[in-house]
Write a structure and sequence with these properties.
heterotetramer; A: 218 residues; alpha/beta; Glutaconate Coenzyme A-transferase; three-stranded mixed beta sheet; 5 helices; 25% strand; B: 235 residues; three-stranded antiparallel beta sheet; 6 helices; 27% strand
């Protein structure tokens, strides 16, 4: 089973040289720590920055320089600032190569729910609906099951939808799943996790073709 | 050019109860601190506020919430704000949550004379309820209308006496978009310089969009999520 | 009768302190030379400039700095450059206080034709259609009659339309006319021009209420 | 980042006959001189060109017209160009004249993922023929579609190895809008610098929109209407 760092590390393998990437809050943010050697990616922060760098040293903190999670950050060389309309403009126009998001639920047709839980105080969707509706490649980083052990990979979302049919891939603590027209296609198992266990924990349609390799980390 | 006003009190002086105002900023970054303080002092009520966020309990728009000056918030994310939550649950406060990109684009539409725009965001969700849907090239879009606001209040880094504005880093965010969208636009700036001192190639908001400008004082620039790394992590 | 300089001079009186003004090619451009003392206006050039200055001295010429008529120009203090989308955005949003244009024909309901003559090579409308459709205050600077002596202030445009019902005022070589729901309202006569002569030369509906003053230049 | 190409020839190498290309510039100001020369040399034919103007007989897009490389021009004003006129009258060249603001906004729409926009320009004119009209707040607007172009070719003042661009003065014009709108965007710049040398606050076109970049050579920057005043007129 992967911990959150393992999930981030696995997702980082999806990065390609020259990619522009938007990383959501939570596990997705950790992906930045595992960018493979020799690959250059540019991180977009939807509040208006391309070329997000690591957190600042204490003496570098600038209140005017934050990411979409409102954390103080830095820039890297070649960065650019812009307003929020251009920021979502480039997202909607498909210029961002990859978006990594967390989710409460994903359906086997790619629907995603990650903004609202009925009965709980709603904080708002922020940029999530824009990102899921428009990004051309969305990977969801999530725990496979909720705290009660119920699958969050479902035949249909039960929570209010953030976007329809938009998720391309899910990396959970149990494995890696491509979303296909026939459902979640398991392409890698997390270390030590059996296909039987994954089958048991996946409520949505699951496709397992032959031997599914266990993921290997170097 | 008679755009210069003395201070925030003069700038917001004619904002009446029931007005619709836009407030720039993302989180607590790039918010018009001076004008918010002046609005609190003025005690104007029943406002509709368009702002991506709603501040925190004791800073930013949260200060106006504490004084119950806001009837309706139009935002994308209202964050951690106990008083906001209390007013929302008690029905005192109306909230319209809209996707962040839609919020930004509806501001821009107003500033660009576009009555409405089509966006993918929210299709198939409750945001789409009651909205016109239209398909282009096999994708479904929502029709979203340009904002109509009486005042836009923005915060810039530098400004000149013609109202030209330059923003700093991610404190730009919604500020230039809202600056374009207000019937009356008020800009508070950290540094106000005579016309001619800003490079015309580097202006983010041309002065034509700005009606009142003043140099703000005592910026706190509170940080919502201070995150740092330790020196030993340096490469 | 006014010459083109007189027309420009008369239009300049319509300027108010703090106005943002777009001046078209031809007579409108001359208006910039007659801005009254004590009044500050900012000239917009729709190719992307606020704060247009006079033509450059020979040693100041910059190929990257032109106006919408493609003439080399200068900037004044407080100028700003922007792209063409923002430029027409501010025009459409009604931020430009006054637009001064030339015209081939104006109708007594405010319709204007100034971009195309059937049978002649069409060069294009450039920004004219955007300007007339969206500007909140449009003054037309024009000769009252064509070379054959036919009125260009008409009951209806005969040439292809540039915009409908958008002209607010006409300053011709013969007089100043507000466009009202009842037609061209003559408010000033050019020096030495009689109301009878104006009546004769105006094909569209003309309103003359009592004595019409002759314009006075200082 | 592997955006840097050697020169214009390499940058336009995969532009095929029949392609739709956008070309930045207003008049002869801010036009991609190097790429135009390379396109002429390459001899690619049957192009649809989206550009505010069509150059003059012996400079700019006029050079491509001389070689009969263009099947269709989409422009707002085609100016003084004898060969253009000849081809148009003989039916060799198709021309789509559209209002300048509409042209700009249809570029921006493409770059901002907006499939269509509403504009006042052209209502009641022949430009509106066959177009959808819609009323908002008592005014009538035309529905105009975002451009769909294979390549955008722009000229900037400075650029960096990440593709970030800064334009100079009114040479900005359509360039940043077209830069956003191409499926593949090619930028030629007067000065190409390493990433980190441009101030991120001053970037007009973020590098995400730019796929290929090179430092151009031998810019002529021809002036279409040289206008000067005499020294004695100085105040």
């Amino acid at each position: 089973m992967l911990d959150k760092f393992g999930i981030a590390k696995r997702i980082a393998r999806e990065l390609q040289d020259g990619y522009y990437v938007n990383l959501g809050i939570g596990i997705p943010t950790l992906v930045a720590n595992y960018i493979p050697e020799g690959i250059e990616v540019v991180l977009q922060s939807e509040n208006g920055l391309l070329g997000m760098g690591p957190f600042p040293f204490a003496d570098e903190v600038d209140a005017d320089l934050i990411n979409a999670g409102k954390q103080t950050i830095t820039t890297v060389k070649g960065s650019a600032f812009f307003d929020s309309a251009m920021s979502f403009g480039m997202i909607r126009a498909g210029k961002v190569d990859l978006t990594v998001l967390g989710a409460m639920e994903v359906a086997d047709n790619g629907d995603i729910a990650n903004w609202k839980v009925p009965g709980k105080m709603v904080k708002g969707m922020g940029g999530a609906m824009d990102l899921v509706a428009a990004a051309k490649n969305i990977i969801v980083a999530m725990q496979h099951c909720d705290k009660a052990g119920n699958s969050k990979l479902l035949p249909k979302c039960t929570l209010p939808i953030t976007g329809l049919g938009c998720v391309k891939k899910v990396v959970s603590d149990l494995g890696v799943f491509n979303i296909t027209e026939h459902g979640f296609h398991l392409i890698e198992r997390a270390p030590g996790i059996s296909t039987d266990f994954i089958t048991e924990k996946t409520a949505g349609r699951l496709i397992i073709n032959g031997e599914v390799p266990e993921m290997i980390f170097d | 050019m008679r755009k210069i006003v003395k201070n925030a009190a003069e700038a917001v002086n004619d904002i009446q109860d029931g007005a619709t105002i836009m407030l720039g900023g993302f989180g607590l970054c790039g918010i018009p601190e001076n004008c918010i303080t002046a609005l609190v002092k003025k005690g104007v009520k029943n406002l509709t506020c368009i702002s991506n966020n709603a501040g925190v309990d004791d800073f930013g728009i949260g200060l106006m919430l504490q004084q119950k000056q806001i009837r309706k918030m139009i935002s994308s994310y209202v964050g951690e704000n106990a008083e906001f939550e209390r007013q929302l649950l008690s029905g005192e406060l109306e909230v319209d949550l809209i996707p962040q990109g839609t919020l930004a684009t509806r501001c821009m539409a107003a500033g660009y004379g576009m009555p409405a725009v089509f966006t993918l965001a929210g299709f198939g969700t409750e945001v789409a309820e009651g909205k016109e849907i239209r398909e282009f090239n096999g994708k479904k879009y929502l029709l979203e209308y340009a904002f109509d606001s009486d005042f836009a209040i923005v915060k810039a880094w530098k400004g000149d006496t013609h109202g030209n504005l330059i923003f700093k880093a991610t404190a730009r965010n919604f500020n230039p978009l809202m600056a374009m969208a207000g019937k009356i636009t008020i800009a508070e700036v950290e540094e106000l310089v005579p016309a001619g001192e800003l490079n015309p190639n580097e202006i983010h908001t041309p002065g034509i969009y700005v009606h009142r400008i003043f140099q703000g004082v005592n910026y706190e620039k509170r940080i919502e999520q201070l995150t740092t790394r330790k020196q030993e992590h340096a490469r």
